[in-house]
Amino acid sequence: MEIFTMIDIVGILGLPYPKHNEFSYNIHCPCCDDPQDPRSKHLNINLRKNVFCCPKCGLGGGMFDMYAYFANVPRKDVYKDLCWKMGRNLDKNGEPRKAVPIIPPVPEEVESPLMDVESRHATYTALLSRLSLAQDHRENLRNRGLTDAEIDRLGYKTTPVAGMSMMAKQLRSEGYYLAGVPGFFRKESGEWTFVHEARGILIPVRDQKGLIQGLQIRRDNTEKRKFRWVSSTDRKDGCKAEGWAHLAGSVSAQMILTEGPMKADVIHELTGISVIAVPGVNTLTQLKTMLEALRKEGLVSIRTAFDMDFTTNYHVQNGFRNLLSLLDSMDFKFGTYVWDPRYKGLDDFVWEGMMNKNRGAGD
User: pTM score, two decimals?
Assistant: First the structure.
């Protein structure tokens, strides 16, 4: 028995198609986006789930709803109209067959498409302004070489342990978007809230303009997966984090590339050198996008500075080779920093050197 799919609807409406191998993508929303702004694309089309949704204005539904809206056809006439236009499920007289099943309703547990970075930044900034940094977390950051002023400017906070629903309610009342912002989701009651995470330090992950793309957590009292993304995937109206690259500092001709946003922040604050960070050496999906943007602003040369175990860890070495291949394919000049292997990261090595220098000056 033949049924329609979302890609059929996209084609007959003349809407943009996705890139190769994409099943979820964004186009201009006819209700709330500026058609003259190429970056204004809030309407998400999901080919796998046969749904569409704009987290900004709320336009959404199933594929028949989308056809009804864009083609200006009454919802009850959509099936008949599609049969005639596409020549499907017609009887010998050219009339639509009546015994054709209706597409099941859209599941309630549909995730929200990712909101634009400007809206995410505004929501995260407002959220962080409501949180504080615990004294033990501040001491941890001081021991890495950061001053109190730097810690406050970077926006590090302690994960909230209570009051998530109240904060979400306040943010919504002040006009901030929660749909499409990783970490926020709706409970069964319909009330918005924020994910309850293990205790740790919240780390803002910023793009080349300094906008907060998402949040990472450095979790307390764990050695495995110490750093993880704040995400609300698989939750009602939730949203997943994308594994964004991070920039500490301003754009310059030569920059350092390391692993981890916190490490990048510390290296930049200690040395003044601008640093790009990937979430992990095997997580390069978003790096190319950032590098393309940075090259337009003057980036020419990159020096990698990954933890010294890359010389012995097979999995890290494999990811490192993929990274170098990416830099080579993009025609960047690149090299690798190495240091005393007693110090795992470049941040540890630089901070210890500064401490030794200060101790020597005091003798």
Answer: 0.72
| Alpha-helical regions (H) of 14-92 | 63-71, 78-86
| Domains annotated on the chain, with CATH | 6-86 (3.90.580.10), 117-229 (3.90.980.10), 246-362 (3.40.1360.10)
pLDDT digits (tens, 9 = 90+) for 262-296: 999 999 999 999 999 998 877 788 899 999 999 99
What's 213-253 look like in SS3? Answer: EEEEEEECCCCCCCEEECCCCCCCCCCCCCCCCEEECCCCC
Are 130 and 180 spatial neighbours (Cβ–Cβ below 8 Å)? no
Least trusted range by pLDDT, from 91-100, 248-257, 262-271, 334-343: 91-100
Rounded Cα–Cα distance for residues 180 and 217 (Å): 19
In angstroms, how far apart are the furthest CA atoms of the chain? 100
Q: Say how far apart CA 129 and CA 120 lie, in whole Å.
A: 14
Measured in whole angstroms, the distance separating CA 191 from the mean position of its chain's CA atoms is 23
Q: Read off the pLDDT of residues 165-200 as tens digits, 9 standing for 90 and up.
A: 999 999 999 999 999 999 999 998 989 999 988 899
